[in-house]
């Protein structure tokens, strides 16, 4: 595995959801009528920086609203949480309060993070309100279809609501826990290889360590690890093929180092093939859904002509396959990736 400093020069533009994708989201019950929108949350007067327990800037800010605006927002956010978690059953929020709203101007979709607390026992949860972006939604759907993970989100016109994905941020894990005496380093390396393979096939870009989390599950004789993406802003937009391979980001070097130290070329190929086999099983069970998602992309702008050409050229060279030159869209490239995975498993 290799490492280098892959640079993303500018933020990806927001692509509005087209008619085909909107119809798909309704078909698969991802749409909802929300009481407040993303843009309602932008009606703050000023913000206060959010610092971590060590006094470092977190790049999140606390927006300050007039009291009457805040009351309306809090009521609406509780209803949104009920829709996200319980299909709109408001009984689950009877004893919950909105503890705080935080805003991040750093991300592409400038998300709001909402903390909600059960006042009976102080147990809290988070969810996110973001500006709806078509390519991000495609990323969430491909995560649902091609990965072992389930994603929970809702869409309403220009607003996207996402469930919080629990885990230790990848950069924090690499700095504080990756060398833990109780953790099997080979298992961590194995999971990174599989994660890298999924991103390459699904064209999920910019998986620097702070854009994924590590989930740790104690087993009866060891710990199991799973890497989960938490940021889908760079879903098939960039033209550089290496953007879709976490192994090339310097922030992921601790994971690459583990792979170099604990895996051989033979075992890397073995784990890649295992992940490809898992993807084939998922595609077969979700073949109608992935076809509907492919059809929904017709006429949907997701990148630039220059980026599409550059990426299909990069993948043609990566896999030594001239079929990529026939691709006209980013979703064509994903589709060919999946077809090639199916062929490789059948051989």
From TrEMBL:
<protein>
    <submittedName>
        <fullName>Uncharacterized protein</fullName>
    </submittedName>
</protein>
């Amino acid at each position: 595995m290799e490492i280098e400093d892959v640079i993303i020069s500018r933020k990806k533009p927001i692509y509005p959801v087209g008619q085909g994708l909107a119809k798909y989201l309704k078909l698969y019950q991802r749409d909802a009528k929300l009481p407040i929108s993303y843009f309602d949350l932008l009606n703050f007067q000023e913000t206060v920086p959010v610092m971590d327990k060590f006094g470092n800037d977190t790049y999140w800010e606390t927006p300050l609203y007039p009291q009457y605006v805040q009351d309306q927002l809090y009521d609406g956010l509780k209803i949104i949480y009920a829709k996200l978690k319980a299909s709109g059953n408001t009984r689950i929020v009877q004893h919950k309060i909105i503890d705080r709203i935080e805003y991040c101007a750093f991300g592409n979709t400038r998300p709001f993070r909402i903390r909600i607390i059960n006042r009976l026992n102080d147990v809290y949860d988070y969810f996110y309100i973001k500006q709806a972006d078509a390519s991000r939604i495609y990323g969430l759907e491909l995560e649902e279809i091609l990965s072992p993970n389930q994603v929970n989100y809702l869409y309403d016109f220009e607003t996207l609501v996402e469930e919080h994905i629990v885990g230790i941020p990848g950069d924090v894990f690499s700095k504080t826990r990756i060398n833990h005496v109780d953790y099997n380093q080979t298992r961590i390396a194995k999971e990174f290889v599989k994660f890298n393979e999924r991103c390459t096939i699904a064209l999920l870009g910019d998986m620097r360590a702070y854009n994924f989390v590590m989930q740790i599950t104690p087993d009866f004789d060891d710990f199991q690890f799973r890497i989960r993406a938490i940021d889908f802003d760079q879903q098939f937009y960039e033209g550089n093929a290496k953007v879709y391979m976490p192994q090339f980001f310097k922030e992921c070097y601790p994971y690459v180092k583990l792979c170099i130290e604990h895996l051989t070329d033979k075992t890397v190929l073995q784990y890649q093939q295992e992940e490809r086999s898992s993807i084939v099983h998922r595609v077969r069970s979700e073949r109608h859904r992935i076809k509907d998602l492919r059809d929904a992309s017709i006429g949907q702008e997701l990148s630039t002509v220059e980026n599409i050409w550059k990426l299909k050229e990069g993948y043609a060279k990566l896999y030594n396959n001239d079929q990529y030159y026939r691709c006209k869209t980013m979703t064509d490239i994903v589709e060919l990736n999946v077809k090639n995975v199916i062929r490789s498993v059948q051989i």
